[in-house]
Each structure stands twice: as C-alpha cells, then as structure tokens.
Amino acid sequence: MNTRRNLYLAAFVGASLSYIFNVLAFTGTFDVFRWSVFVVVFFGFTYGFEKFIGWQTSST
Asked: What is the pTM of this model?
C-alpha cells in the first residue's frame, strides 16, 4: 500500500502543479473552488483507471 500511496501523491502533485500553472498563465487568476473540483475529478479518474487496469489484468 505504501507504493500506491506514493504514486497517488506524486501524480497529484504533478497534476496539481500543472493545473495551477496553466490556470495562472491563461487566466491570471486562481480559484480554489475550481481547483478542488479538479482534485476530486482527478482522484476519481485515477481510482477508476486503476480499478479498470486491475480488472483487465486479473482476468485469465
């Protein structure tokens, strides 16, 4: 579980920094509500993709 937690944390930091820098570059403002929606959607897709890959690799 420790490796999975580290991967989730690394993915979150990278995606979050990318989102913040892109929003600041293109709009010049940062909205915490939009960022929190991004975080929820990001973790939802990441978790769903992990479950999908697990489902595909576990079938024999």
From this structure: 0.79
